TrEMBL record:
The chain crosses the membrane at residues 9-26, 32-52, 68-86, 98-121, 128-152, 158-180, 192-212, 224-244, 256-276, 282-301. The keyword Zinc does not apply. This is O-acetyltransferase. It comes from Flavobacterium okayamense. Residues 7-299 form the Acyltransferase domain. Keywords: Membrane, Transmembrane, Transmembrane helix. The keyword Methyltransferase does not apply. It comes from the Bacteria.
Length: 311
């Protein structure tokens, strides 16, 4: 089963990270953006839950610290320098802002706005940490989710490591963890073409929500619609990934999803510039062009700075 999971979930991560790029590329229909933001971050939390393994607290802190927190801190520092150096005389940030924002893991429109997508990494670390602590007391997880729901849809409550976002994401992590036990059964009894009706129903539910979900700022709209739509679209993406197992581009995107997550906002302007030279302003084409642009920086990082991907 390991090989199957590796291939399919690499493809699934590839689909997810492409949607992250597309969601930030600009010039994308608002309805499509709503669909993307309804499930692309829940998708990664679901995958993390699927691969979660119970371990000792010491091993967890060492492994997850290396895999998540070190790349987070380094990318935050590099992103800050990229902004700060050319704007030294009129920078809206100083080094205190960098240290404070990075330490708290807060992306609130000011802190971490030098690379806003980095919020996901400390949130992912905290989510894994909370689940590890509560795995023996799972009844408490319900209480944590209820607290998250209580503060949902309040953009002013951006807590350290995006705690409210983490609590709202717990159901995806838990379901991903439980889904691992039944994955082969699902694969045997459900056909891959079912991604079509699941997508249609999920997209329809998204259209019924009262606002555009954005987990980063605690926005989920109607909870029942949000969780239902997200899970249907996650399952649809999983079935689709089974059909696209041999797609080399998606596989590469999945294998390098962490680096792509951290790098893509810093290179989007190049893809936009190329398209605008031809008088084209299209988010989907921008996303496609960005992939080969990211290829060489990622190759260099993997060869000379593997610490940036947690190795």
């Amino acid at each position: 089963m390991g090989k199957i999971i590796f291939n399919e979930f690499n493809i699934l991560k590839g689909i997810g990270i492409f949607l992250v790029i597309l969601g930030h590329a600009g010039s994308v229909n608002g309805n499509i953006i709503n669909v993307i933001f309804s499930f692309h971050m829940p998708l990664f939390f679901f995958i993390s839950g699927f691969f979660f393994k119970e371990t000792t607290l010491k091993d967890f802190l060492v492994k997850k610290g290396k895999r998540i927190l070190i790349p987070y801190a380094l990318f935050s520092f590099l992103s800050f320098l990229i902004y700060f150096i050319p704007n030294y005389n009129n920078s809206k940030f100083n080094f205190f802002d960098f240290f404070y924002g990075t330490f708290l893991g807060v992306s609130d429109g000011f802190y971490l706005s030098w690379n806003i997508v980095l919020w996901f990494l400390p949130a992912l670390f905290l989510l894994n940490f909370i689940y590890l602590l509560l795995i023996k007391m799972r009844f408490l997880i319900i209480a944590f989710v209820i607290v998250g729901l209580y503060f949902s849809n309040d953009e002013t409550k951006i807590l350290p490591f995006h705690l409210i976002s983490v609590l709202l994401s717990l159901p995806f992590f838990i379901l991903g963890n439980y889904f691992k036990q039944y994955y082969l059964i699902v694969g045997n009894y459900f056909k891959n073409w079912m991604f079509i009706p699941l997508s249609i129903i999920g997209i329809y539910l998204v259209s019924l929500n009262v606002l555009k979900p954005d987990l980063r700022v605690n926005l989920i709209g109607n909870p029942f619609i949000f969780y239902s739509a997200s899970l249907l679209l996650i399952l649809a993406s999983l079935f689709l990934s089974r059909l696209l197992q041999k797609n080399k581009i998606l596989q590469w995107l999945g294998e390098n999803s962490l680096l792509i997550m951290c790098l893509h906002l810093k290179f989007l302007f190049i893809a936009r510039f190329i398209l605008l030279k031809f008088g084209v302003d299209n988010g989907f084409l921008t996303s496609l062009i960005l992939i080969p642009i990211l290829y060489f920086p990622i190759i260099l990082i993997k060869k000379y700075l593997p610490i940036l991907e947690g190795k």
